């Protein structure tokens, strides 16, 4: 099991990890906060004041960002729980104490699921089906045929590129305390990641669609497919 | 008007249904059997109908129609197509069409031929005009594939779950080429909920059909 | 049983009002049977063409009708024994079974929607028709197997639709078709239409436009174009800048589309120039038209002025003529005045003379008319009173019938109660039957046990006696007696079982006899012999006719 390859700059930024375990815990908490709320300069300022001997607010921020980078690279490398996380961390940071390493391991494992979901399906932003509205319609007349009875099922598909459910929850933050610019940015984001589509079909095709999709679902549950998926995993 | 079989509700509103035809159409119809000879009339009607019903098919051209009096032939072609389109639009039956044509004082042979061809092909004409009109993209075909990632640019390991790529589309009527309307990805639970949603529609349709 | 009959009668009456609900099922004539069964079959399967009545005369026709109805019942799924005899020689039991089956099969919808007598000939509203159509369409789509899109135009032809091919309504707005009057066309236009102009189908061959849409659009434009010239011009004008090139190529020189680009460019340049010229000319024409209109306005004003002045001129001329010779003219005018006055006096006198009698007659007529009106009102009051009485009487009658009807309709609850009673009774009987069966089984078991015991006893005794018979003469005799006893006993047992069998047979025969009695064979037999005699008579007649036909041939 080899160590993680970190650049010189990254190692410099992680210099603050040399501090006692309690301070590292504080830094890790800041990194969590960063993940959810973004940078929080005031907090870094107070932290920097605490570590008056070494570093400014800027150094603290760099450390926090380096921690997140560490989190991502560890998650990328370590697929599931079978790999010994502590061994990797120990090889990567041979000069750190056991208590600090334990804190780091905890930090990495606790947020791994969150990061995993994002990065694993982040590369191809395919649309996912979020919701479906439908309506049964009958066309009774048209310009070319005044008397007819054409039954059609109209469906509205709500598609979204946001990869994972847990991250979608983040999108649903309350908009009450946000500035106008922020709201605008969010709307823009919505517009980019969302697509609503109106389609129609006839009942016969609908029945066929249901059958085909059920076939697909049944197929995915067969032993053969499971074996293949397990083998890849 | 009271004696005519009032099939279409539009007839009640329009006191003189032959007024539906423009002067050009009437002139074109009068050419049939008169300026254009009866055998050519037959050929012209058959050809017009074929081209109306199968706009995309390659049908052998009939040059003899335009051999003499091409302008009249072109006018009559337009007239025949328009007559059938209007008759189908207003839901005339064969008898009613004949009555209308007789009011226009056309050649009797042409009237016979026109109403006979109309009666023989009414269903196809209705079907043809039923397709015409605005609609959202119509799904008639569905394709799926099960996908499982092995490795990606952002992760060294597989997610370990199979995903479904669902592709909804139809076929372009003219070329038969497949057109994708929408494509999306979902996992097993999402697919199950989609199936449930669609089944809900089917169930509703069933209820409508039985009630 | 007559409860069932009542239900059957009620249903039959709903199906066919001519069947009176009072009649007994036993007393049904073949005619009534045919009427009832064919009525039910017509309800169940409206597509079937069945005879409604039994023809009176020829046996062969009657036979044909009866067997076709029997076939219809079989086709509807009736399992029981059925044939022409069921209709021609009806029997209450079979008929009851058949009618109950048919009533069971009657469509439910009819029973629920049908409110009494006004069943079939109600006209449906448009909305109901549409709903029915939608329902039909939906069931059809749900039931029919899925057909791939490209096969739909053929596969779904019968169902008239569901082809699901959407063609946008996109007309070619610039169809060029020779107009109605050939006289209006210039020579160049005629030549163009004769030689170069693409036909209708070539003009709509592009995938972006549709033939039917184009044709409908043009027809409507032709019909309303004259009424709304401005809007049409506006429409065409707004369309042009978007695709000027297409317009020129389709309307003016479609043949050049196949040629190279440079002549096309040239031609389009020319067209452009011509268009500019045309616009210039149009503006010129417009200014001319404006001046023309102004001039016309002036002209009308002038004519008006002239009209006003001319009568004044005439008056002036007359007065000047009169003033020329005043004395003479004055006397003339006075005499004229006098004669006119006398004339007017005589005329007023005459007028008075005529007027008086007329006024009098008017007065008398007015009074007469008033009296007549009063009389009329009185008459109408009387009529209305009579009508009211008739209506109240009718109301009473209807009330009475309603009461009787509700009384006759009420017993449904009664029926169910009785059915429950029957079921209870049947249950009780079933219990009794089980009890008897148990007893019988018990008895059988005992019998078997005793029989086996006896057999063993006998074998043992037989052995014992046989052993001793070798030595003892008495024992030998005893052994013989034992053998005799054994054979006699077995004979006896056999006799008993035979007696039992015979009694069972007897009972079965009795039941059969009862059944046959129920079928009143005698009368049916009489009827059948009567029919056979009729047949024979018919045959004889026919033979006689044949002979008569042959005879003259032989004679000649």
Automatic annotation (TrEMBL), chain A:
Residues 128-224 form the COMM domain. PROSITE patterns: COMM. PANTHER family: COMM DOMAIN CONTAINING PROTEIN 2 (PTHR15857), COMM DOMAIN-CONTAINING PROTEIN 2 (PTHR15857:SF0). This is COMM domain-containing protein.
Automatic annotation (TrEMBL), chain B:
Residues 138-209 form the COMM domain. This is COMM domain-containing protein 3. It holds the Pfam family COMM_domain. Belongs to the COMM domain-containing protein 3 family. GO terms for biological process: sodium ion transport. CDD domains: Commd3 (cd04751). InterPro entries: COMM, COMMD3. The lineage of its organism: Eukaryota, Metazoa, Ecdysozoa, Arthropoda, Hexapoda.
Automatic annotation (TrEMBL), chain C:
Residues 1-107 form the CCDC22 N-terminal domain. This is Coiled-coil domain-containing protein 22 homolog. The keyword Hydrolase does not apply. Belongs to the CCDC22 family. Signal peptide: none annotated. It holds the Pfam family CCDC22_N. Keywords: Coiled coil. It comes from the Eukaryota. PANTHER family: COILED-COIL DOMAIN-CONTAINING PROTEIN 22, JM1 PROTEIN. Residues 323-350, 374-408 form a coiled coil. Residues 259-517 form the CCDC22 coiled-coil domain. InterPro entries: CCDC22 (IPR008530), CCDC22_CC (IPR048348), CCDC22_N (IPR048349).
């Amino acid at each position: 099991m080899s160590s993680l390859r970190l650049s010189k700059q990254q190692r410099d930024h992680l210099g603050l990890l040399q501090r006692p375990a309690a301070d590292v815990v504080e830094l890790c908490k800041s990194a969590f906060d960063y993940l959810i709320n973004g940078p929080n300069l005031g907090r870094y300022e107070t932290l920097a004041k605490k570590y008056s001997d070494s570093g400014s607010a800027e150094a603290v921020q760099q450390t926090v960002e380096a921690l997140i980078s560490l989190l991502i690279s560890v998650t990328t490398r370590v697929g599931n729980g079978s790999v010994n996380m502590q061994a990797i961390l120990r090889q990567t940071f041979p000069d750190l104490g056991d208590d600090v390493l334990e804190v780091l391991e905890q930090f990495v494992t606790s947020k791994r699921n969150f990061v995993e979901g994002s990065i694993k399906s982040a590369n191809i932003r395919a649309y996912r089906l979020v919701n479906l509205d439908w309506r049964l319609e009958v066309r009774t007349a048209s310009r070319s045929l005044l008397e007819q009875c054409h039954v059609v099922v109209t469906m509205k598909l709500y598609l979204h590129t946001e990869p994972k459910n847990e991250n979608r929850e983040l999108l649903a933050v309350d908009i009450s305390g946000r500035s106008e610019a922020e709201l605008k940015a969010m709307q823009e984001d919505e517009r980019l990641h969302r697509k609503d589509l109106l389609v129609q079909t006839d009942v016969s095709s609908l029945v066929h669609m249901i059958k085909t999709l059920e076939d697909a679902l049944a197929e995915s549950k067969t032993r053969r497919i499971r074996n293949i998926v397990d083998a890849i995993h | 008007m009271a004696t005519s079989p009032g099939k279409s509700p539009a007839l009640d509103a329009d006191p003189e249904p032959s007024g539906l035809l423009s002067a050009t159409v009437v002139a074109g119809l009068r050419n049939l059997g008169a300026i254009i000879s009866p055998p050519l009339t037959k050929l012209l009607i058959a050809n017009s109908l074929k081209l109306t019903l199968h706009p995309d098919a390659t049908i052998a051209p009939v040059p003899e129609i335009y051999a003499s009096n091409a302008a009249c032939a072109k006018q009559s072609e337009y007239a025949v197509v328009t007559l059938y389109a209007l008759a189908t639009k207003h839901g005339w039956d064969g008898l009613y069409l004949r009555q209308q044509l007789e009011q226009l004082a056309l050649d009797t042979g042409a009237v016979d031929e026109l109403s006979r061809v109309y009666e023989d092909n009414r269903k196809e004409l209705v079907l043809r005009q039923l397709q015409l009109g605005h609609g959202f993209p119509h799904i008639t075909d569905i394709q799926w594939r099960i996908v499982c990632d092995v490795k990606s640019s952002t992760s060294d390991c597989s997610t370990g779950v199979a995903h479904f790529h669902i592709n909804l589309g139809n076929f372009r009527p003219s070329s038969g080429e497949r057109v994708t309307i929408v494509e999306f990805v979902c996992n097993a639970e999402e697919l199950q909920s989609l199936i449930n949603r669609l089944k809900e529609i089917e169930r509703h349709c069933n209820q409508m059909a039985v009630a | 049983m007559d409860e069932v009959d009542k239900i059957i009668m009620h249903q039959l009456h709903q199906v066919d009002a001519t069947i009176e609900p009072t009649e007994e099922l036993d007393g049904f004539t073949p005619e009534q049977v045919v009427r009832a069964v064919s009525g039910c079959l017509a309800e169940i399967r409206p597509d079937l063409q069945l005879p409604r009545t039994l023809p009176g005369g020829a046996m062969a026709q009657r036979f044909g009708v009866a067997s076709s109805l029997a076939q219809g019942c079989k086709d509807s799924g009736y399992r029981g024994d059925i044939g022409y005899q069921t209709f021609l020689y009806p029997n209450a039991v079979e008929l009851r079974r058949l009618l109950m089956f048919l009533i069971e099969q009657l469509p439910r919808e009819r029973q629920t929607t049908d409110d009494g007598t006004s069943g079939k000939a109600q006209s449906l509203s448009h909305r109901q028709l549409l709903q029915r159509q939608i329902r039909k369409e939906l069931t059809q789509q749900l039931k029919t197997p899925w057909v791939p899109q490209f096969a739909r135009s053929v596969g779904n032809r019968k169902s008239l639709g569901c082809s699901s091919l959407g063609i946008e309504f996109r007309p070619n707005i610039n169809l060029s078709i020779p107009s109605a009057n050939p006289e209006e066309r210039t020579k160049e236009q005629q030549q163009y239409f004769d030689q170069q102009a693409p036909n209708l189908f070539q003009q709509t061959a592009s995938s972006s436009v549709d033939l039917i849409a184009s044709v409908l659009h043009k027809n409507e434009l032709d019909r309303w174009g004259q009424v709304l010239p401005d809007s049409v011009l506006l429409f065409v004008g707004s369309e042009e800048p978007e695709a000027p090139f297409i317009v020129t190529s389709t309307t003016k020189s479609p043949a050049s589309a196949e040629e190279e680009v440079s002549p096309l460019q040239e031609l389009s340049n020319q067209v452009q120039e011509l268009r500019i010229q045309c616009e210039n000319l149009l503006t010129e024409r417009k200014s001319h038209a404006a001046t023309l209109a102004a001039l016309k306005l002036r002209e009308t004003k002038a004519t008006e002025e002239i009209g006003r002045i001319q009568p004044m001129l005439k008056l002036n001329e007359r007065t000047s003529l009169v003033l020329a010779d005043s004395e003479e003219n004055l006397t003339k005018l006075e005499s004229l005045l006098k004669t006119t006055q006398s004339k007017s006096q005589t005329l007023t006198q005459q007028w008075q003379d005529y007027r008086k009698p007329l006024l009098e007659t008017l007065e008398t007529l007015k009074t007469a008319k008033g009296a007549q009106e009063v009389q009329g009102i009185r008459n109408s009051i009387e009529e209305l009173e009579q009508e009211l009485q008739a209506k109240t009487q009718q109301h009473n009658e209807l009330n009475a019938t309603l009461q009787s009807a509700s009384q006759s309709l009420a017993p449904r609850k009664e029926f169910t109660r009785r059915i429950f009673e029957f079921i209870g009774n049947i249950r009780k009987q079933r219990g009794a039957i089980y009890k008897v069966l148990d007893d019988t089984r018990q008895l059988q078991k005992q019998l078997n046990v005793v029989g086996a015991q006896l057999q063993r006893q006998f074998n043992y005794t037989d052995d014992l006696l046989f052993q001793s018979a070798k030595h003892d003469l008495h024992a030998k005799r005893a052994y013989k007696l034992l053998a005799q006893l054994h054979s006699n006993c077995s004979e006896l047992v056999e006799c008993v079982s035979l007696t039992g069998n015979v009694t069972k047979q007897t009972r079965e025969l009795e039941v059969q006899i009862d059944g046959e009695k129920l079928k009143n064979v005698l009368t049916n037999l009489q009827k059948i012999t009567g029919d056979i005699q009729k047949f024979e008579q018919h045959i004889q007649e026919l033979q006689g006719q044949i002979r008569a036909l042959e005879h003259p041939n032989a004679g000649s």
